[in-house]
Specification:
It is built from 2 helices and 9 strands, in the order ββββαββββαβ. It is an alpha+beta fold.
Length: 163
Amino acid sequence: MATTLPVPIQFELPDGWHAAPPDEVGAPGAAFVALAPQPDAGFTANITIDGEFRPDAATLPEIAFESVERLRQACTSVEVAGGREIGSTDAPGLTQTLAVTAVVGGVARELVQSQVYLSMLDVADPRKRAVIRLVLTATRTQFPDVLDDFQDFVRTVRPDSAN
């Protein structure tokens, strides 16, 4: 069952990308899924968004490590290919790139994930910290072609104070 985000956000999808119901595309833990316009070898690059309240003092690198450990339980292999902290003290973030081997639709796939973690304060209650995770998953072949779209997408993500 699709989840909801702990804080409302707004964003703009890259040209040609379209929203898809998380449950129907096999991403029940996501709050939002967008699909690329062209598949590659039967796999469609996708952007997923999820998040959670984090009342603990876990740092973004610790939260990213937790995510890698969960992914390792579901995939054949997961390797962290790089990562760095981004943003500012007021709006911290972290990005990491993963090389993933997973069975998708019965087919072993060599995938790349670009994960971005954004720490946001709840606009209604600034004492609550939420971490929003934005993930691009693509085949190794398609990844360079869709990375710019994902980076453009990430730049548009912001809290939605209208909700």
